[in-house]
Design brief:
Blueprint (H helix, E strand, L loop, with lengths): L20 H24 L9 H7 L2 H18 L11 H11 L2 H14 L4 E7 L5 E7 L4 H4 L3 E7 L6 H4 L3 H8 L5 H10 L1
Antiparallel strand pairs: 1-2, 1-3
Helix pairs in contact: 1-3, 2-3
Keywords: Iron, Metal-binding, Oxidoreductase
Enzyme class: oxidoreductase
Catalytic activity: 2 superoxide + 2 H(+) = H2O2 + O2
């Protein structure tokens, strides 16, 4: 069973002007696709991986196999965290959970942006549901994610690897993060929270 590069949930130019079609072409078409290719190459030479789902591989593997599996998983989740009709303030259960934890959406937005912008090197910023039932903001390094690290159930993510923004924002991670807020898919966040 090979791992397949998933279809994007929107057209490559749908996130413009916040994220360009050129960025999507490189980020999805080159980087995400390369993780899928490398993971499939690893599966083809390791009988222990054959027949396992992406989730199973990501949760149990280590080293390069984990890095590629997690990057496939993380990017698939990231694309769903974005929507051409997204942005604005959250609604429903996510809004309530955010306000309960952070006091206000603005306080949450600052905490999330600070985690994303202040992350040293490559990685991810996540909104997660914690084991205690609330929500929190966590950062993970490189390919890692909250599932692997036991830091909660992912609700939403922002990719802060440089390949997410170098074409549109050069070295301005804060500029990219500010634009990311215009695309946040709160419907996806509410769906994830409801599954927890």
């Amino acid at each position: 069973m090979s791992i397949v590069l998933p279809e994007l949930p929107w057209a490559k130019d749908a996130l413009a002007p916040h994220i360009s079609a050129e960025t999507i072409e490189y980020h999805y078409g080159k980087h995400h696709a390369a993780y899928v290719t490398k993971l499939n190459a690893a599966i083809s030479t390791n009988s222990e991986l054959e027949g396992k789902s992406l989730d199973e591989i990501m949760k149990t593997a280590s080293g390069g196999v984990f890095n590629n599996a997690a990057q496939v998983w993380n990017h698939t989740f990231y694309w769903k965290s974005l929507s051409p009709s997204g942005g604005g303030e959250p609604t429903g259960a996510v809004k309530e959970a955010i306000e309960e934890k952070f006091g206000s959406f603005e306080a949450f937005k600052k905490a999330f942006s600070d985690t994303a912008a202040g992350h040293f090197g490559s990685g991810w910023a996540w909104l997660v549901k914690t084991e205690s039932g609330g929500v929190d903001v966590v950062g993970t390094h490189d390919a890692s994610n909250p599932v692997k690290e036991g830091k909660g159930t992912p609700i939403l993510t922002c990719d802060v690897w440089e390949h997410a923004y170098y074409i549109d924002y050069r070295n301005s991670r804060p500029g990219y993060i500010a634009a990311w807020w215009n695309l946040v898919n709160w419907d996806f966040a509410n769906e994830n929270l409801a599954k927890c």
